[in-house]
Amino acid sequence: MKRIKCVISYDGTDFAGFQIQPKQRTVQGELEKGLMNIHKGTPIRIHPSGRTDAGVHALRQVFHFDTPLDLKAGNWQQALNTVLPDDLVVKEVNVVESTFHARYSAREKEYRYYVLNQAEKDVFNRHYVYQFPYQLELEPMQESCKYFKGTHDFTTFSSAKASIKGSKIRTLTHASCHISNGKIEFIFRGDGFLYNMVRIIVGALLDIGQGRRNPEDIVELLKQKDRRLLGKTAPPQGLYLWNVRYEE
Q: What is the pLDDT of residues 138-192, one digit of tens each?
């Protein structure tokens, strides 16, 4: 058996998320259907670095699978892209050691979130940014980002519907935002992210940008460990799984 690592990009618009769900179109479902085709009807299970929700995009998502077939990396990439739909593409393929695991070997993930801050709707970008028509002050949002850096319990910034039990402690090595041509880019890097964590953080930063909260409030919100203290979760279409980093 060989273990294959794949890096993929997908447009999340028409997927009901990454994970397989009954009677729903998912990224995992399309990948496993394609692999079963290549393996002439034999089911092949994939293991991703993590899941993304319905409507969330990925630039460099990673998964691995085990196969009895002896193909070169380039041939795997070509074969998969031949059987996959147009909104899902394999960017890289590598044959890896059997000890590699797409999820457990990951050292850092990067997410980016995009907000189009203008009054007029952009119909062509509605699936790829959060269109936010209200005035925002960027400086308080940028100041707030520094409070997220480091190791914290992110319970307040995690969905109350999260099924994962256990520690909500995560370490963020980078949190920033900047604006270009009316589009605000939020960048977050860390050792792991809780369910809806980035989208809840962005929602809080938008509140701060509107003057509804102060940057220092983040310290107290982290201490309180209570999701109910914050408002709405930012919508999925602005979120991108940007990269997953492994040890060289």
A: 999 999 999 999 999 999 999 987 666 788 999 999 999 999 888 999 999 999 9
What's the Rg (C-alpha) of the chain?
19
* Topology (CATH level 3) of domain 2-96: Alpha-Beta Plaits (3.30.70)
* pLDDT-flagged residues of the chain (< 50): none
Element (H, E) at 244: strand 239-246
Q: Where are the domains of the chain?
A: 2-96, 106-246
**Residue given tokens 């604006």 in the structure block:** 179
Examine the residue annotation and report whether 87 is marked as an active-site residue of this protein: no
Q: DSSP string spanning 211-230?
A: TSS-TTHHHHHHHHT-GGGS
**Set 14, 53, 87, 217: catalytic member:** 53
Q: How far apart are CA 25 and CA 159, in angstroms?
A: 23
- pLDDT at position 163 is 64
The per-residue pLDDT for 166 is 80
- Tell me the residue type at 165: K
- 201 in the Ramachandran plot: left (φ > 0), alpha (ψ -120 to 50) or beta? alpha
- The answer to whether residues 232 and 105 touch, using CB atoms and an 8 Å cutoff, is no
State whether CATH 3.30.1490.20 applies to domain 106-246.
no
> Which pLDDT value is given to residue 161?
77
